[in-house]
User: Fold these one by one.
Assistant:
Number 1:
Amino acid sequence: MVESAIKTIAPEVGAQDVVADLEEVRARTHRLVGHLGAAELERVHSPIMSPLVWDLAHIAAYEDLWLAHRHAGVPLLRPDLAAVYDAFETPRAIRGDVELLDTAATLAHMAQVRERVRSLTLEAGVGDGTLHEMVLRHELQHTETMLQTLSIAGLLPPEWPQGPSLPAGMEAGPEWLELEAGSFEMGAGGAGKAGSVDFAYDNERRRHRVALDAFRIARLPVSNAQWRQFRDQGGYERREWWSDAGWAWLQELESAADPRAGLGEDGAPACHLSFHEAQAMATSRGARLPSEAEWECAATTAALAGVGEVWEWTSSELRAYPGFVAHPYREYSEVFFDRGYRVLRGGSFAADRRVATRTFRNWDLPQRRQIFAGLRLATDL
């Protein structure tokens, strides 16, 4: 996982400190694409990903909407751009077909938005900090999405980690950790405001008690060596290891495994696996994927190793927690509930620690493997 010295906005932090955080996150974004020319930024590198230049302009549009328009109450800088850089008005499938700002105009727009947000923040303050923290994390999440695009295109920055690393302490400890039956408090506490350690997205709340049967969970994520063994010993031919949905998906592929899956050191976590592949791998080893409740319980009470190297698929579909309230807009989470998206936990080498907390819920469709995702095995006890 990429290290970051940035901390969650604290109650006593003033506007100048928040502006400094905004600048540090923006510098990170620019470093990510600084080695690319306009052609590479404007090209569609994958049909399921946006042109990188769209992501950059979207980051600026989101910042202008929430920090200039809705927080400070001024008109949008470019209302004519609102629809094309809205993630729902302009879905990924058509972003390469609509007229976008070119690279020079995009970078200029980012700079103009940032300058007005800087001035407005210093003038009007940050309130309780919620919106500023949300915008900071939004940009950090989009830089990971951009890293997915860069990985597909073979354009990762030379100084950036090229994949997951060997988990710390991988040689020490048992293969399995056993957790007794019981209950625990799941989800983020507090009201989710950015001025405290309780900042959370709406889908992480409310905290609620969950009862679990006894289970065991692997101390480490599935490794490259383990994944290659699955692949090389007929993993993509053994029908009995695949769910009906997974097998149907497999038949539609031109080639089975993602060529990036299984690359790297033997002990490093396997990456670029879909939910279907993760589920089949678990079945092949007489195991299963943990539920997200099991994962969170184990991550907070047991000595899991390798957390944060790859996102880890869980068996859980994305659903609302009891008492869920959409905040500050329903399109962040609510529109994805009960639509077949599977929850991933833990973070990745490309994620920033400010985002990837133990309660953070990532999600994606079960067929997707552009995400930096692997798995951790679990079984009943």
Number 2:
Amino acid sequence: MAKKEFPERKLPKEKKGFPADEPYNFGGDFSNRVSGLFSKSFSVIKFILGVLLLPFVFSSAASFLNEFNLVNKDLQGIFWNGAIFFLGLYLFIWEPVSIYNKGHKILEIVFSFFKPMVNVAPFLLPIYTILFFIIYGLLSLGIKSDWLLEYALFLIGFSTVLHLVFSAKTIRTKKGDFLKGNYIFGFSFIFILNLALLAFGLSLIFKEFSFVNFCNISFTTAGNIFRSVFKQLFMF
């Protein structure tokens, strides 16, 4: 008796994303779905952490202003003039992105021995602000003049806002940021860290500015915000 032959089983020739003459890649498709799900889950976690950082964003800003208001008003004005000058330059004349990128390259060279820091340090650390603090500290050892402090404060104000603006812009324009988790968490962390570094540097220049008070007020204010929110949500 003749052996019964069964027709060869073939997969359909059409499927979106695959050429008709190529086999399916079931494993790759599943892997992509898992990767996408993991990415979205991680973005949700970063979004939650970013929201939790918002009270510290407010408290650190309030604490910084509280301490900085103790400094001479004229010197305060010079610092804010530097910040305002950058904003005017950025909004109406020229975006100094080349200056920001050169700062990135400096930090990449500095942290070239530790690759993980190469990727995050340019966003976290305001390299120009740090350099201006160091340069002022060295020059002030031999130069006792008001103009040196005035120029330093102007440049510190300018460079601090430069770093915050371009870091925010870089993070915001990244694609695939589900729920803006990267932006909310990343920029909140950068803002807090930059204010802390700025507060530390100013505390070395001005005896009226206390870094310890800055930290204490920041944590106390943030703690009060968390307690108030908790009472509103769970205490009836």
